[in-house]
Design brief:
The protein is of the alpha/beta class and about 425 residues long. It contains 12 helices and 21 strands. Strands 3-4-7-8-9-10-15-16 form an 8-stranded parallel beta barrel, surrounded by 8 helices. It has a 4-stranded antiparallel sheet with strand order 5-6-14-11. The chain binds flavin mononucleotide.
């Protein structure tokens, strides 16, 4: 059995899987609920003194499950920051949360927000939290909710702080200088240049970065001709599909400053999702909307699946897992063929006679109409070289894994639907 124990900013953690800031970290009884699933850490619900985000519209969770399976894990949420009065939370809930985490061997990370982009408005929270025994604090610098939910004077807290490197630097530096415990800066997927913000956080002395906070979204109910949930845009476009986007943003940071501890999440639902994030340079991996969509048991299930993945790979400790961020690149740096892509493709699909079961998916989905299947003949698909673009869509969709891409002239395999495509252009001059 693999040993899942690890450390984050020098603090021991029993396993890298935890719950990012949401209800589950807000009050002791919910902290206990997720703790019982064996997670290594939990982040508190963001505490604050902003007028607006503590009063949520009720109901505040709008699942899109009724729209069909495509959207089954997708939802929009108008829940905002902690809804308990700050002083009451500090005196009543925080001590209980800390005690429970201690008993359960779970790291509790506090989360807070100042009232503006002025760093001074954040510092009293940090001092309170440090004084009460918190070992680490996450700055909720990435949330979309305040933008929509706070009173006008406070609307620049949350995501706007993580969009601009100069602001990120200022807030990080002031917060890091104010206390003696690690400060984590939480990022937003709204940020276009995540690497620049990450470098600013590093320059400001930030101990770790976390990401990503939620995106925002809106939905219109076409049956009732009205908005769904509350009208307009609101925070929290959730669901597994957005892991792809969140991971891309995370990689921009982990590939730029691999030495910076990273707490990554966004659309993590399974043990393999956790593995993906660890391979992508995350030290801790957070789950949030999965816990709502699938129930709290998804946490213990994910820990088990991750452990099994490690065992299957022969990784005995977390340190044995390779981080692959040194392979991360922007498309501009990938070697490409000559300029005449309208010419006949040098890379073509090859269909396997034995594996093909003539389902016809490749024929239906080929964007260029290049694939034909004669079901009556019972043979594998054929393709028209004049129409084929060498795009690889048929490889990714074949349920039988019966298609691979090869070089037209030599038959050399370029891609079989697993891992990275072969950098075939670099082998030759052009093609
Ligand atoms: C119900 C709910 C409440 C949340 N509340 C907060 C919050 O108070 N502070 C914060 O920083 N992030 C908050 N988040 C964002 C999550 O911590 C997380 O960053 C985001 O949802 C992406 O992860 P996921 O795809 O696993 O949900 C909340 C998310 C959800 C679903």
């Amino acid at each position: 059995m693999a040993d899942l124990s690890t450390t984050f900013c020098g603090v021991p953690v029993k396993n890298p899987i935890g719950v990012t800031s949401c209800d589950y970290g807000g009050v002791e009884k919910l902290v206990r609920r997720v703790g019982e699933q064996g997670i290594g850490w939990v982040i508190g619900k963001t505490v604050h003194k902003i007028d607006g985000p503590h009063r949520w519209p009720r109901p505040f969770f709008y699942s899109l499950r009724h729209e069909g399976n495509d959207l089954k894990d997708v939802w929009i949420c108008s829940q905002m920051f902690h809804n308990m009065e700050y002083e009451r939370w500090l005196d009543e809930e925080l001590p209980k949360c800390l005690k429970t985490c201690e008993e359960m061997g779970m790291l509790y990370i506090a989360s807070c927000s100042g009232t503006s982009a002025e760093a001074e408005t954040w510092i009293p929270f940090l001092k309170d939290l440090e004084e009460r025994g918190c070992k680490m604090i996450e700055l909720d610098t990435g949330g979309p909710h305040a933008t929509f939910g706070a009173i006008e004077a406070h609307k620049d807290v949350g995501a706007p702080l993580a969009l601009d490197p100069a602001t990120a630097y200022k807030v990080t530096k002031a917060c890091v200088d104010a206390v003696n415990i690690p400060i984590i800066f939480k990022t937003t997927p709204q940020c276009v240049n995540a690497a620049a913000v990450a470098l600013a956080i590093q320059k400001g002395g930030g101990h770790a970065i976390s990401g990503n906070n939620a995106f925002y979204g809106a939905w219109i109910d076409a049956d009732t001709n009205s908005f769904y949930g509350v009208p307009g845009s609101m925070g929290g476009l959730m669901g597994r599909p957005w892991q792809i986007f969140s991971l891309a943003k995370i990689l921009e940071t982990t590939a730029t400053i691999p030495e910076m501890p990273f707490l990554g999440g966004g659309g993590v639902f399974t043990g393999k999702d956790v593995a993906r994030h660890v391979l992508g340079g995350c030290d801790l991996v957070g789950m949030c909307s999965a816990v709502y969509s699938r129930g709290v048991k998804v946490l213990s299930k994910t820990i088990k699946e991750f452990e099994q993945w490690m065992d299957a790979k022969g990784y005995k400790t977390i340190k044995d897992i390779p981080v692959i961020t040194d392979q991360f690149m922007y498309l501009r740096d990938w070697k490409r063929e000559g300029p005449y892509m309208q010419d006949i493709t040098p890379v073509i699909p090859e269909f396997s006679d034995e594996k093909c079961n003539q389902c016809g998916i490749c024929e239906d989905l080929c964007p260029y109409g290049a694939i034909s299947l004669d079901k009556a003949a019972g043979t594998k698909p054929t393709f028209d070289l004049d129409k084929c673009y060498g795009c690889g869509w048929c490889v990714g969709h074949c349920p039988q894994w019966a298609v691979r891409m090869v070089k037209r002239e030599t038959g050399e395999q370029i891609w079989d639907g697993k891992g990275v495509i072969k950098d075939w252009v670099s082998d030759e001059e052009g093609y």
